[in-house]
Structure formats: C-alpha cells, structure tokens
Design goal:
This protein has 161 residues and is an all-alpha fold. 73% of the residues lie in helices and 0% in strands. It has one domain.
Length: 161
Amino acid sequence: MWSGGAGKGQMLMISLTLAVISLMLASYEDIRTKSVTNAVWWIFSAGLLPLLFEDGADAWAVAECLIAVVIQEFIMSRVYGRADSHAFSCCAVFLVFSGGGLEGHIMHMCLALAMLSALQILRGNIGRGLKLKEPVPFIPYIAVSFMISVIILHIVTSKIC
C-alpha cells in the first residue's frame, strides 16, 4: 500500500509520534482539568489510520484489536474514567497493529496499574477497599507505561519501529 511513499517503519514512527503527542496533551489536560476533550482522541486516532490500512494487516490482529477496544470501552470504562478507556483503546490499536499483539496491550495495562498502585501506596493515598483516597489523573501513568511498553516490545520482538 505504501510502495510509492513511506515504508512501514516510517508509518510506525509517524503513528508513534502522534500517539506520544496525543498522550502528552491528554496528560496535561487530565492533570490541569481532570478531564480530556475528545479532540485529543481524534488526533490519536488519525495517527493510527495508516496502521489499520497497511498491507498485511491480518484478521487475527483485527480480532485482537477489537477485543481490546471492546473490553476497554464497555467493561473497563466502568472501573476508571471514559478518557482513560479511550487512552487505553488508542494505545491498544497501536500496540496490536505494530506487532505487540493483545499481549502488548495487556502488558501496557498491567504496567500502568502497577505504576499507579506503587506510587499511590508510597503517597499513602490508598484507603479501604483498595480505593484511592483522593482521585489522581491516570492518563500520565498510561502515557509513561505506553512508552515503556513500546521500548520493551521493540527490544523483545524487534517489530515495533
């Protein structure tokens, strides 16, 4: 599909760059206002389009991506905020279609939750029922754990970027 222009590696880098910019904007907005406008997710989604329409996108990757997004948007959105679900969904699309698979998305979720939990335990912000005493923005944790996941998956699989 990209034979006349950018190669897959370049398209991954463009998608990754837009992902990082979107997550930085969302993190800033989440910290400042405790909400994130949908425009951020439209930017992120636009950066993912080249991955979705890349030659060689197989049915299994599409299925894994759909599973991840459905779980985030319809189940996990009840656990944490809608913007957090959107962030995880966009990250899942990138991780699945860039070679990390559903395993990459699960690793990303676990890293984000582990980082949030560890830092909030250290701050003494965990109350009864393992709930946060004071709400904290989750998207910065999602953003940092996304970058860590991309680096780990690149080292392990050499497929991403």
